Amino acid sequence: MLPIPWSVLPMVPVGLVLPGFAVAEDASSRALIALDTLQSWYNSTSGLWNTCGWWNGANCMTAIADLAAIEPSALNTATYVFGNTLRMAPAYNPQPGPENQTQSRYAGAANASEWLDSSYDDDAWWALAWIAAYDVTNDDTYLGLAQGIFSSLKKAWGTRCGGGGLQWSTTSAYVNAITNELFLSVAAHLANRASSESDRDTYIGWAQKEWDWFAAQGFIGANYTINDGLLENCQNNGQTVWSYNQGVILGGLVELNKAAPNDTYLESANKIAQAAINTLSDANMVIHDVCEPNCAPDATQFKGIFIRNLQMLQQVSPNDIYKKVIEACANSIWANDRNNQNQLGVNWAGPFASADASTHSSALDALVAAIAI
Ligand SMILES: *[C@@H]1O[C@H](CO)[C@@H](O)[C@H](O)[C@H]1NC(C)=O
Ligand SMILES: *[C@@H]1O[C@H](CO)[C@@H](O)[C@H](O)[C@H]1NC(C)=O
Ligand SMILES: *[C@@H]1O[C@H](CO)[C@@H](O)[C@H](O)[C@H]1NC(C)=O
Ligand SMILES: *[C@@H]1O[C@H](CO)[C@@H](O)[C@H](O)[C@H]1NC(C)=O
Ligand SMILES: *[C@@H]1O[C@H](CO)[C@@H](O)[C@H](O)[C@H]1NC(C)=O
After folding, report:
1. Fewer beta carbons within 10 angstroms: which end of the chain, N or C?
2. Taking CA 326 as the corner, what is the angle to CA 64 and CA 283, rounded to the nearest 5 degrees?
3. DSSP per residue, 349-373
4. Could you give the C-alpha distances from 68 to 62, 73, 138, 196, in angstroms and in order?
């Protein structure tokens, strides 16, 4: 029999939903298949993803933007999502912020206040999502949204523990790690995208102030892992070492080091990343959160955030362990934590139990990180 030239074989269109387990895909194809699945939850009316919440939507959008940044086949979907979410999602902000501006729908001008929901961490997730959208599109509208959100966040800079930091929300005095890591990361990202030297310096100043404050408080525990937050007396509260708290700080320090190089930033990031891997990975180097398999809806998205940020560190400070973790997570998700509709669950080691847009987008982060490895 004559060999069939490859060019006459039927091509599988990239981005088409394939029956589960049908083909052995490379990292890009896996991520594109997972993108299609994620979009089965996208609700064009709400501009959000059914089955997950408001802040999770920001992380779904970030995962899509990160994929589009390295995989042109995802660009159409990504640009559609950015535009539609910008128009539609503000009307579905579940808890309009203190400025109460989400009552009216987008009316032709992007308005940062529509993205505030009174929880400062939620606001910052959207700021990072719009920065990711800006990076893909170069559309200043998106950068302006992130800048506007940051303007609002910096007004929340507090005076309690060590005379600084942000509390969790307008109504909760809890000083938690995630809110402050996100504040650092947004400031540092904005520094690298500022249009004037003085804006750049201002953002660098905020990022450094947050990092100096953060490092001086008790967030980082004995083993260089980061606990959830501080007690009222400002000591480490010993609460869960969540994966995302070991992650957001990495991306923040990578961006800060890019804006204002200082060897201590990546030294700290590497210590935190290695401590996290020691603490959170299993024997196969797959990352877990302690809540699995019955995580509350928020926590189902944490691990992808860790891997997304570990990948940022790997890009500037490569380490074979980071590479192995990213690959192990992506491969295990695909092999062990996927159903026949290509939905991805919360326990990356498997077995697959259930999925929603939160578990799935989190796994997508790992698939995206594995592309550039
Ligand atoms: C889209 O979201 C809106 C608001 O949550 C909801 O009322 C509607 O049923 C959703 N549409 C679909 C097709 O899921
Ligand atoms: C904003 O919302 C709060 C809480 O719902 C309400 O008390 C306040 O009157 C509102 N302010 C404006 C200007 O609508
Ligand atoms: C944002 O929207 C609110 C009303 O929803 C409006 O009062 C405010 O002026 C808007 N800001 C900008 C910059 O358009
Ligand atoms: C530090 O790690 C050791 C060894 O794994 C563990 O026994 C200990 O509980 C950890 N301490 C903290 C504060 O996490
Ligand atoms: C580098 O950062 C550390 C920690 O924030 C700081 O103590 C030190 O002064 C910085 N070094 C320089 C040269 O700015």
Report:
1. N
2. 140
3. TS------HHHHHHHHHHHHHHHT-
4. 10, 7, 13, 27
Q: Is 231 exposed, middle or buried, given 0-12, 13-18 or 19+ CB atoms closer than 10 A?
A: middle
Q: What is the per-residue pLDDT for 6?
A: 37
The total domain count for the chain is: 2
Expressed as residue numbers, the domain containing 229 is 98-280
pLDDT tens-digit readout, 57-72: 999 999 999 999 999 9
Ligand lying closest to the C-alpha of residue 266:
5
Q: For residue 7, name the pLDDT band (cuts at 50, 70, 90).
A: very low
Q: Which atom of ligand 5 is nearest to the CA of 263?
A: 1
Residue whose token pair is 């997950």:
52
Give residue 247 CA to ligand 5 midpoint distance, Å.
22
| 37 and 168 together in one domain | no
Same structural domain, 120 and 82: no
SS3 assignment, position 169: strand
**Distance (Å, whole) CA 156 – CA 166:** 6
Residue at a domain's end among 280, 302, 337: 280
Q: In CATH, what number is assigned to the domain containing residue 145?
A: 1.50.10.20
Whether ligand 4 lies within 6 angstroms of the CB of 278 is answered as: no
Give me ligand 2 centre to Cα 233, in Å: 32
Q: How far is the CA of 57 from the centre of ligand 2 (A)?
A: 25
- Please tell me the predicted confidence (pLDDT) of residue 14: 45
Q: HSE on the CB side for 157, CA within 13 Å?
A: 17
Residues 174, 261 within the same domain: yes
